[in-house]
# Entry
Amino acid sequence: MTDKVEFSPSMPITPVFDVQARIKELQGFLDPSNPNYQPERQHKNIRAVIKLYEEGKIDGLKRTTIIDGKIVPYKAAFESKSGSWTEVRR
# Structure
């Protein structure tokens, strides 16, 4: 006689995305003394992402692509001649 086998979920605790921590991390990317400092061409995009988080327009769960400080379709990142930033929870 076999017993029914039950498996636990592979990830029993849903990960929580800390928006405030992400905003702080993004702000660090603008600081030249930060080892993760990003190039000037990304600053407009990073500031836009910070603003979108602060306004609650993005949550970090859905992929959002920014070019020249504006939300664009993801595919545009491959065609852009300026810097692009794709924001999504890692």
About this structure: The chain has one domain: 19-87. The longest strand covers residues 64-67. Residues 29 and 53 are 15 Å apart (CA to CA).
